[in-house]
């Protein structure tokens, strides 16, 4: 297909518009989310956490206190908070929501116990370095808050201001890819757990560029989480280590100095593990879920270091897509459907690579719309190619259907190289044949009978020409011209032409019988034909004027073949061929007399031979 700048420019822009529209649809969002997840998996651990650590109540810690229900862990929480304060932790966030204090619980069951059971825990909370977890639900239409037990809430110096909402938005596929610094606004934003802890610990950490605007209503808008790495990127310190007698000399505990520490639960059956972008299963690997405290740790670390993932806007995305769509259009204009599909696939992979590079730089490039655009360019270009190709095939069938065999037309179409407009030089064999004494014959018949005779005769000889791969070039009165080796090249064109000439002689004998039966008034009239053949170069193509074009052959080879048909009369033999044709036909050509024929238009005589037969090879 020839390159048409206007068409392909329009196709590129239409594909771009389609891609921009598609990228807003939910299926496209899911594809873009999948691309983002794959970038996360490929990148692995992106940076080493500096400011946040995670301590978990895991199965090991739970096994050390097998007889203690979680509601009675207050004294142990107090000891852990004290150890963290002693080791130099900046602030602590408890991603554990103690909705019921043991005192309240014992009041409910009527137990007689000391009111000071959780005194140490509440004293630690009162020291002001702790953020407690809360959550909010809006399923009923009105916000419903789940808060810590009143005893603990009152122990906090700033009460509700020392709470953080642990809710994280789940995408439709259940993956945590985004967070909002504030989750609910009633007068002023209520900070998320991660934002509240980051804000509390910020004074003890130099610089916290990600905390700007926490109290603005814009903080309610979810934004992508800049994960530091897959599960385990933040080292998990077991509560068992923090509660051990030698905890302060434990290197893992000492490493918590100067950091914000998130306390959480990660025990079998606790269900506080969520799917993250790193949960994308590849090559049959099982999904790996991330503990909820570590998700909060990723958010806080990004806020404190200023790392972020920013969605590239549609305008910038369009600018990034356009070169890929333009290259796809160029490829489709010059390559076939298969190769252009591979080019489109390569461009899609290249765009994925560009997206990965931008991801490493903190930018998320949507690709689903671009993929749709590449498919649209390929489909549009090849639909036009197919339509044009069908038109070309129809034109070829119309132009050659009456003159060449169906097999030849099929071969021309299969070659993918239809005859080019204009003419081209080709080596061919040209055959001329006419009816002997046709003028006298026509005088014995009416005009209608002459036409009938010629139609029946030409039908028979044309079948022979087509059967041997020849092209019926034209009829001139009682003469027929055929070309072998065009429009489809045939290395056996000379041999096929000789076989055709011999077949025409045989057909003329059978035709004579038909003619005598059909026109008894002709008596014993003998029907004879002469055939002349010559091989050589000729110009073959569409020749004529704007009003009429014919696909024909012209040149000295054609003129010589025409003259040799007349030589048959002088030599008194039905078939005469030039030595050039006999030599090009190969072995097995039976010849008779040979003469040097002087033909009009040739300065030198032409060696010609009588053709008697052709051996099968």
Automatic annotation (TrEMBL):
Molecular function as annotated in GO: adenylate cyclase activity
CDD domains recorded: CHD (cd07302)
Region forming the signal peptide: none
One BP term from GO: intracellular signal transduction
Residues in coiled coil: none
Keywords, alphabetical: Membrane, Transmembrane, Transmembrane helix
Top-level division of the source organism's lineage: Bacteria
Pfam families given in the database record: CHASE2, Guanylate_cyc
Annotated InterPro entries: A/G_cyclase, Adenylyl/Guanylyl_Cyclase_3/4, CHASE2, Nucleotide_cyclase
TM region(s), chain numbering: 312-333, 340-359
Guanylate cyclase domain sequence ranges: 429-565
Name of protein: Adenylate/guanylate cyclase domain-containing protein
Organism, scientific name: Solidesulfovibrio carbinolicus
């Amino acid at each position: 297909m020839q390159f048409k700048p206007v068409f392909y420019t329009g196709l590129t822009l239409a594909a771009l518009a389609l891609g921009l529209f598609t990228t807003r649809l939910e299926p496209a969002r899911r594809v873009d989310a999948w691309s983002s997840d794959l970038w996360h998996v490929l990148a692995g651990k992106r940076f080493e956490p500096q400011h946040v650590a995670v301590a978990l109540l895991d199965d090991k810690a739970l096994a050390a206190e097998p007889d203690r229900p979680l509601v009675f862990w207050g004294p142990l929480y107090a000891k852990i908070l004290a150890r963290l304060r002693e080791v130099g932790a900046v602030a602590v966030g408890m991603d554990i929501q103690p909705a019921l204090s043991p005192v309240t619980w014992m009041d409910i069951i009527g137990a007689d116990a000391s009111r000071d059971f959780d005194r140490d825990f509440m004293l630690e909370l009162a020291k002001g370095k702790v953020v407690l977890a809360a959550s909010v639900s809006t399923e009923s239409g009105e916000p419903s808050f789940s808060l810590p037990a009143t005893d603990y809430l009152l122990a906090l110096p700033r009460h509700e201001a020392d709470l953080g909402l642990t809710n994280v938005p789940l995408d439709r596929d259940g993956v945590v890819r985004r967070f909002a610094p504030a989750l609910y606004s009633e007068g002023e934003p209520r900070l998320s757990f991660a934002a509240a802890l980051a804000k509390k610990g910020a004074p003890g950490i130099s610089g916290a560029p990600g905390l700007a605007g926490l109290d603005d209503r814009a903080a309610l808008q979810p934004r992508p989480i800049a994960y530091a790495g897959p599960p385990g990127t933040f080292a998990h310190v077991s509560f068992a280590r923090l509660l051990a007698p030698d905890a302060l000399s434990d290197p893992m505990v000492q490493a918590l100095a100067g950091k914000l520490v998130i306390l959480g639960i990660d025990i079998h059956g606790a269900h506080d593990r969520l799917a993250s972008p790193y949960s994308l299963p590849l090559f049959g690997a099982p999904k790996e879920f991330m503990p909820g405290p570590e998700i909060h740790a990723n958010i806080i670390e990004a806020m404190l270091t200023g790392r972020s993932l920013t969605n590239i806007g549609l305008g910038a995305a369009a600018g990034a897509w356009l070169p890929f769509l333009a290259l796809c259009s160029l490829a489709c204009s010059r390559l076939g459907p298969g190769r252009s599909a591979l080019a489109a696939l390569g461009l899609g992979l290249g765009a994925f690579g560009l997206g990965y590079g931008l991801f490493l730089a903190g930018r998320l490039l949507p690709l689903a719309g671009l993929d749709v655009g590449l498919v649209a360019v390929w489909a549009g270009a090849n639909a036009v190619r197919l339509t044009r190709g069908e038109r070309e095939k129809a034109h070829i069938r119309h132009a050659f259907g009456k003159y060449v065999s169906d097999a030849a037309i099929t071969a021309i179409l299969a070659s993918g190289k239809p005859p080019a407009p204009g003419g081209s030089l080709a080596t061919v064999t040209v055959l001329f044949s006419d009816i002997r004494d046709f003028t006298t014959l026509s005088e014995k018949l009416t005009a209608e009978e002459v036409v009938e005779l010629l139609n029946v005769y030409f039908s028979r000889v044309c079948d022979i020409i087509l059967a041997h791969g020849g092209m019926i070039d034209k009829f001139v009165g009682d003469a027929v011209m055929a070309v072998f080796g065009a429009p489809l090249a045939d290395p056996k064109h000379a041999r096929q032409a000789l076989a055709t000439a011999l077949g025409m002689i045989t057909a003329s004998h059978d035709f004579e019988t038909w003619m005598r039966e059909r026109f008894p008034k002709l008596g014993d009239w003998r029907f004879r034909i002469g055939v002349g053949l010559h091989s050589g170069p000729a110009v073959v193509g569409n020749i004529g004027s704007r009003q009429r074009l014919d696909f024909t052959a012209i040149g000295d080879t054609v003129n010589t073949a025409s003259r040799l048909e007349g030589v048959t009369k002088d030599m008194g033999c039905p078939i005469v061929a030039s030595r050039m044709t006999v030599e090009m036909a190969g072995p097995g050509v039976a010849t008779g007399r040979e003469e040097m024929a002087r033909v009009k238009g040739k300065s030198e005589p032409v060696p010609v031979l009588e053709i008697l037969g052709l051996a099968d090879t």
